[in-house]
Amino acid sequence: MKKTLREIAVLVKGEVSGDPDTVIKGAKGIREAEEGDVTFLSNRRYVSLLKETKASAVLVPRDVTGAGRPVVRVQDPSLAFAQVVGLFVSSEIRHPQGIHKSAVISKTARLGKGVAVGACAVIGDGAVVGEETVIYGGCYVGHDARIGKGCLLYPNVSIRERVQIGERVFIQSGTVIGSEGFGYVRVDGAHKLIPQVGTVVVEDDVEIGANVTIDRARFDKTLIGRGTKIDNLVQIAHNVVIGANSIIVAQAGISGSTHIGRDVTIAGQAGLVGHIEIGDGAICAAQAGVISSVAPRTMVSGYPARPHREAMKVYAAMQRLPQLLKEIAELKKKIKALEERLGK
Question: pLDDT tens across 214-239, in order?
């Protein structure tokens, strides 16, 4: 397939600067692009790559100049590029259709119109699956679980008993929702499990990555708010509440009964203790060790996590420690010499 730069600009609602009849045959990253490709630049740190790329055209922010080749100026180059990629690269995924003969579905389960269930999937007693939901092979849906309309469960997802999944929820392979919460009491020198009899509620339009674990609450519910996106390898403990439209990045761990507000970002490998509150719009930076509540619209980093600017000052001071220790040693020598001269 071939497109002119003019046609691409119409698609992404952009403005062409340069030859609008430039022919585009493909879409690639700025380093991989070749002649005939369109690429994009969204982060100004990589402006220097505009001189190196072999791409025939570039999608750029509206205020970028001097690209040295035809460009399409857009509001969000990354989003625009995602639209363009669809013109040249097929993203069609063939989901299961119908009910596979090896699927095990309880007679008391209820499946809506257009539900697809793949090979060896199991759907338990009293479970409800909404219309047009696709359940890949090897998935498990426990008794009395509820899954809304238009959901997509990739292979080997486990939805445990009584868990509630909203509409248009996408869950990647290997994720377990509703696993037993990690709660123990020590009795006669041994750890005894405290029964976790609550559930998990995942609201509409949530997307959950691969190998995520979301534990059921001890009594009430663990809640994942509408529109929240969760990356791979995230652990969310019992009774955690996450507000709408939050982002939880890979390898983050959230301890029990922590409440996270709306539009919060928990970056990669951040760890949060239990029973704290993260305010709306807050950001916990990568590898932050969050041991106390975070105010709304505050960015924290480091361990223990503190306001980001303060943490940067601490890191800067730590970088100077070898030199400071050397200077202190020299000062000690000078003080000792002065004391000897003064007869002390």
Answer: 999 999 999 999 999 999 999 999 99
Partnered with residue 229 across adjacent β-strands are 207, 247
List, as own/partner pairs, every contact residues 219-226 make where C-beta atoms lie below 8 angstroms and the sequence separation is at least 24, other chains included: 222/198, 224/200, 225/262, 226/166
CA 71, 72, 74, 80 dihedral sign is: negative
Q: Which long-range contacts (CB under 8 A, 24 or more apart) does 249-255 make?
A: 249/286, 250/209
The model's pTM: 0.85
Alpha helices in 4-121 (DSSP H): 5-12, 77-88
Handedness of CA 43, 48, 50, 54 (dihedral sign): negative
Catalytic residue, chosen from 238, 259, 275, 308, is 238
Residue 238 annotated as catalytic: yes
* Residues whose CB is less than 8 angstroms from the CB of residue 315 and which lie 6 or more positions away in sequence, other chains included: 302
In the DSSP assignment, the letter for residue 275 is S
pLDDT, position 91: 66
What is the DSSP annotation of 286-324? TT-EE-S-B-TT-EEETTTTEEHHHHHHHHHHHHTHHHH
Give the CA angle between residues 189, 194, 200 to the nearest 5°: 150
Cα(207)–Cα(201) distance, integer angstroms: 13
Residues 6+ apart with CB under 8 A from 182: 215, 237, 238, 256
Res. 249 pLDDT band, cuts 50 70 90: very high
pLDDT in tens, 281-330: 999 999 999 999 999 999 999 999 999 999 999 989 999 999 999 999 99
Residue matched to tokens 């022919």: 23
